[in-house]
Amino acid sequence: MRKAPMRVLLCSVALLVASCSGAAGGGGGGTSGDPGAAPAKDATLTLEVYSKFTDREERELNKVLDGFKSKYPNITVKHTGNQDDDKLTQSIQAGSPPDVAISFYTDNLGNWCQSGAFQDLKPYIERDKIDVNQIPQAVRDYTTFDGKRCAMPLLADAFGLYYNKDLFAQAGLSGPPKTTDELFEYAKKLTKFGPDGSIEVAGFSASMPFYGNLAEVWSPMFGAKYLNAEGKSGLAGSPQWKEMFEFQKKLVDFYGVDKLEKFKAGLGDEYSPDNAFHKGKLAMALDGEFRTAFIADTAPTLNYGTAPSPMSSANSSMYGGGLVTGTIIALPKGVKNPGASWELIKYLTLDTGALVQFSNGINNLPSTIDSLKSPELKHQPQFQTFLDIYGSGKLVTKPSTAIGDAHLKAVNDFAEQWVAGKVPDLQAGLKKVDDQINDALAQKQGK
């Protein structure tokens, strides 16, 4: 099943392990200050790949990995899917790291960079004269931490609005909402209640965390930022966060807490064919471009459209943009053959043909400007929205922190309590979240 880049509560991650064996063909080193030499053309190596990819996406990655043989015909790549973040961390701690690590999430990048678990790639980039400006700024941002480039992007994910065209037509709506005020009004018009008052179709879900409804997906719509200029959590002092949670409460009040929870409990899993949007139970949903592949696979007759996420009135200039995140790929500490590892990283993240092939295979956004413009990209029409978002120059990403995804989880946990009506005072509740996050940051930074 497709990864969920924003499912921070699950913390699902992929690994790509390249364990080199056989005749040595690449330089040693393994430290961030001493880049390893590329393997010789006739080097015999085995690169063992671990990733979180499964099923269709695992097969597509295998096809891309096969292309590495065109450059190094004697290098064998062995790929095992469905590996996770815990295994990556444990392997590094045990002194037996993968040679290349691929993660579905940027959330732990700060931890990995700060601890040195991921090596600084700057020496390799400078040696090979790589222009990182071929990667969009926001993507460059989420693959670095505290000025250190300890990862590269391997495809990207942008988030936007999916809407059911048949349900829109039934409600007399001709196009998607562009503002959060319109989103609320559309949600009311699209919602269908049963004779007993239960929700049969929800115009737009207010539950959080739920599917693509995560605080980090909603926050760009309101211009809400996780960290202030001092690098601390400042939710309680942010009118944008308050507006976001007040919008959520207004939507919850429309449905009713109990009705909303009962409705949610009866919906299918996010990554199953029974996804509520696939089944016409949700008229609008926020999700990434990868959802187009799931719909094509499990709900091919669904009549749907895609659009940028609606924006609040105060944040209207950001319409057309949105949240971007994506898969990251890195060189772990202590690898035996860093030169060979880097060559594979470089191939997967900078080779236009490889990026386009992988993008076409799993319906993710290609992560360089050249690959984004390639005429070889082949996607269904709904995918174009996300290409436009990605090229909008209005991208927002999540901040990498030394506490991993703890700040994201704290806000999503709060949102869940807020939806359930368990937070009587919004200001006081946000202040508690600030204290929790700032305490964690201070502890990690030894302050």
TrEMBL record:
Q: Which Gene3D superfamilies match?
A: Periplasmic binding protein-like II (3.40.190.10)
Q: Does the keyword Repeat apply?
A: no
Cellular localisation: Cell envelope
Keyword Signal part of the UniProt annotation: yes
Q: Where is the signal peptide?
A: 1-23
Highest rank taxon of the organism: Bacteria
Supply the alphabetized keyword list: Signal, Sugar transport, Transport
Main subcellular location of this protein, as a coarse class: other
Matching InterPro entries = Bact_solute-bd_prot1, SBP
Q: Which CDD domains does this entry report, sorted A to Z?
A: PBP2_UgpB
Q: Member of which family?
A: Belongs to the bacterial solute-binding protein 1 family.
Q: What does this protein do?
A: Part of a binding-protein-dependent transport system for a sugar.
| Name by which UniProt lists this protein | Probable sugar-binding periplasmic protein
